[in-house]
């Protein structure tokens, strides 16, 4: 494995009495894609959300264990959560552009983090849209509403919005599950491009997608990680019977 971008150590997540994630320890390598797979309700999204403290927003939720980035535990009370979410961005299942222009969607984050210069913002908007492979489709309508874009374009816009604040890690929670097959394949191509610059952790129900886009795969079951290995190994020669049963469609 290359350099580690992010590590979870003995992470447990509870919703009140419900113990949703059990003692999960995983290392995520720099500039690789890691897929989190497993049946519905096994804790994939809960785990993903704890990687940038999004679970803080759920009052009943309690997290124990460590998430290490640059050797610092982000679960401490002294963490600047806004700065953390700049470093570790999130793309959700449903595209959620702001009710603003395409330009303003992208400029919002950098402006919030202190960039006011118009020329600099123009450059960031163009670079981010290019990185998210949506520049050609938007360059002549930057000041039109983002909501007029198709679902697939909106999702690429949301990826551009995440990229605009220069994160190290991008978390994606089933980013293509609400999209048609052509938009899905564009998102998959984009993920393969983005991993040259970012570490990506993606939750997906789509096994083919996990096999196509990721280097590593973690198989979750009932809040536990059953197996974590190279994607090729998970899909061709898994160690555990339960992994084999899941990837061959025997359950889930
Ligand atoms: N906000 C919440 N409050 C209480 N329980 C929750 C909450 N969110 C998730 N859970 C429970 O935690 C467990 C894990 O849910 P989670 O959404 O993380 O699973 P998942 O593997 O991502 O599922 P899916 O693939 O269906 O999205 C489930 O039993 C779920 O019902």
Describe this structure in words.
Helix content is 36%, strand content 27%. The protein is α/β, with parallel strands linked by helices and 252 residues long. The strands form 2 sheets. The protein has a 6-stranded mixed β-sheet, with helices on both faces. Strand 1 (4-15) and strand 2 form a beta hairpin.
Strand order of the largest sheet: 6-7-8-3-9-10
Strand residue percentage: 25-35%
At the fourth level of CATH, the homologous superfamily of the domain at 4-97 and 168-247 is P-loop containing nucleotide triphosphate hydrolases
Q: Kindly state the number of beta strands.
A: 10
The CATH topology of the domain at 4-97 and 168-247 is what? Rossmann fold
How is the topology of this model organized?
Layout: E1 4-15, E2 18-29, E3 33-37, H1 44-50, E4 61-69, E5 72-73, H2 81-87, E6 88-91, H3 102-112, H4 118-131, H5 135-138, H6 151-163, E7 169-173, H7 181-194, E8 199-203, H8 207-213, E9 216-221, E10 224-230, H9 231-236, H10 241-247
Parallel strand pairs: 3-8, 3-9, 6-7, 7-8
Antiparallel strand pairs: 1-2, 1-4, 4-5, 9-10
The protein binds adenosine-5'-triphosphate.
Adenosine-5'-triphosphate (ATP) binds at residues 15, 18, 20, 38, 40-46, 58, 60.
């Amino acid at each position: 494995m290359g350099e580690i971008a992010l590590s979870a150590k003995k992470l447990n997540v509870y919703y009140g009495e419900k113990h949703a994630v059990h003692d999960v320890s995983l290392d995520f390598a720099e500039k690789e894609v890691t897929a989190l797979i497993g049946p519905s309700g096994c804790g994939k999204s809960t785990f993903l959300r704890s990687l940038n403290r999004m679970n803080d927003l759920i009052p009943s939720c309690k997290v124990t264990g460590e998430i290490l980035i640059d050797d610092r535990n982000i679960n401490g009370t002294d963490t600047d959560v806004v700065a953390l979410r700049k470093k570790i961005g999130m793309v959700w299942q449903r595209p959620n552009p702001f009710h603003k222009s395409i330009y303003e969607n992208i400029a919002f984050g950098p402006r919030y983090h202190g960039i006011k210069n118009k020329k600099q913002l123009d450059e960031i908007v163009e670079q981010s849209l290019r990185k998210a492979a949506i520049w050609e489709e938007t360059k002549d309508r930057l000041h039109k509403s983002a909501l007029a874009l198709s679902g697939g374009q909106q999702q690429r816009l949301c990826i551009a919005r995440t990229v605009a604040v220069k994160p190290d890690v991008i978390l994606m929670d089933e980013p293509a599950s609400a999209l048609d097959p052509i938009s899905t394949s564009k998102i998959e191509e984009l993920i393969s491009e983005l991993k040259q610059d970012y570490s990506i952790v993606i939750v997906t129900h789509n096994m083919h997608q996990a096999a196509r886009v990721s280097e590593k795969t973690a198989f979750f079951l009932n809040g536990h990680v059953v197996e974590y290995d190279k994607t090729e190994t998970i899909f061709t020669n898994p160690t555990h019977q339960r992994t084999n049963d899941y990837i061959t469609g025997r359950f889930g």
